[in-house]
Amino acid sequence: MTDGHVVRDADVEYESVDAAEGLSKGVLLGPDVTPTLSLRRFELAAGATVPEHTNEIEHEQYVLDGEYVVGIDTEEYTVSAGDSVHIPAGAVHWYRNEGDEAGAFICAVPNGDDTIELL
C-alpha cells in the first residue's frame, strides 16, 4: 500500500508574491501532502527583482529556466538552468533578473514557520 500523490502541472495555481513584483509561486507539493517538506515552483519575470530578505527556514533550489542573479549575504551568483542553490536559514538573500527572458526554479523547503522579513 502507498500513500503516494501526484499533482498535475495543469492543476498547479500560481499567485503573485506580495514581497516582489514580477515573482509568482505555485505549490507543487505542500504540507497537505507531505509532512516534512514543501516543493514550490517560482517564476521570476524578465526585469524583476526580489528585495533583500530573510526566511526562518533554509531553501534548496534548482534552476529550471533563464539566467538571473541570486545574492546570498555578501556574494552574488549568476545562475542558469541546471544550477543548484542552497540558502541557509536566516541568510540575507535577493534575486535580480536582468535578462529578457523569465527565470524559473524549484524550491524545496522544510515545512514549518517560513516567516519572511524584508530588509
UniProtKB/TrEMBL annotation:
Signal peptide: none annotated. Residues 41-108 form the Cupin type-2 domain. SUPFAM superfamilies: RmlC-like cupins (SSF51182). InterPro entries: Cupin_2, QDO-like, RmlC-like_jellyroll, RmlC_Cupin_sf. It comes from the Archaea. PANTHER family: PUTATIVE (AFU_ORTHOLOGUE AFUA_8G07350)-RELATED. This is Cupin domain-containing protein. It comes from Halosegnis longus.
